[in-house]
Design goal:
- The chain is an alpha+beta fold.
- It has a single domain (10-90), classed as YlxR-like (Hypothetical Cytosolic Protein, Chain: A).
- 34% of the residues lie in helices and 24% in strands.
- The protein is globular, with a radius of gyration of 14 Å.
- The mean pLDDT is 91.
């Protein structure tokens, strides 16, 4: 009898919800300190997961959750990229 495949779950740093990895977006800080959106989920570095929702992105920006999690300053361009990604997902 085949075992059903286990779905990897991740916790959103903004909302605290546990969701499947496919429903999340990963933000990564490289060793050099560059912060970027990791669409593949495989870049090396310190990562944090956010739900693919406008509310989660705005909450993370407002409260500085990502900067705390990644111990780095998060450029506005990263939040803009996240918001545009969320908009694309909705349509």
């Amino acid at each position: 009898m085949a075992n059903p495949k286990k779905v990897p779950l991740r916790k959103c740093v903004a909302t605290g919800e546990m969701k499947s990895k496919k429903e999340m977006v990963r933000i990564v800080r490289s060793k050099e300190g560059d912060v970027s959106v990791d669409l593949t989920g495989k870049k090396s570095g310190r990562g944090a997961y956010l739900s693919k929702s406008k509310e989660a992105v705005e909450l993370a920006k407002k409260r500085g959750i990502l900067s705390r999690h990644l111990s780095s300053e998060i450029p506005d361009a990263v939040f803009e990229e996240l918001l545009s990604l969320v908009e694309k997902e909705r349509h």
